[in-house]
Amino acid sequence: MVQILKILKLHEIYFLKLNLEFKNRKRNKKHEFAELIGDYIKEISDPNNREEYDQYLKQQKIKNRITKMYENDQF
């Protein structure tokens, strides 16, 4: 009986360790994601890059319209 309790205690400790490790990984991923979003916001709000992004968005809108026209057989 004592052996079973020891084994259960070891499993409990192991589970707690895994749980803490998982939470730490999750926290790190959130931090990395926040950094990436921050970098993206800095990049798109930079006036030097703004014109390039606006031009890219216009091109994508035009491509999307043309694709929809093909899908709806409007040509």
Number of strands: 0
Number of domains: 1
Instruction: Please state the overall shape, judged from the principal axes of the Cα atoms.
Output: elongated
User: Structural class per helix/strand content?
Assistant: mainly alpha
Low-confidence stretches: none
| Helical proportion, percent range | over 70%
Biggest sheet, open or closed, and with what strands and sense?
A: none
Query: What is the number of helices?
Result: 2
Strand share of the residues? under 5%
Topology:
Blueprint: H1 2-45, H2 47-71
Which properties best describe this structure?
75 residues, 2 helices, 0% strand
Structure description:
This protein is 92% helix and 0% strand. The termini are far apart. The protein has one domain. The longest helix is centred in the N-terminal third of the chain and has 44 residues. With 75 residues, the chain is mainly α.
Nutshell version of this structure?
The chain is an all-alpha fold and 75 residues long. The protein has helices at 2-45, 47-71.
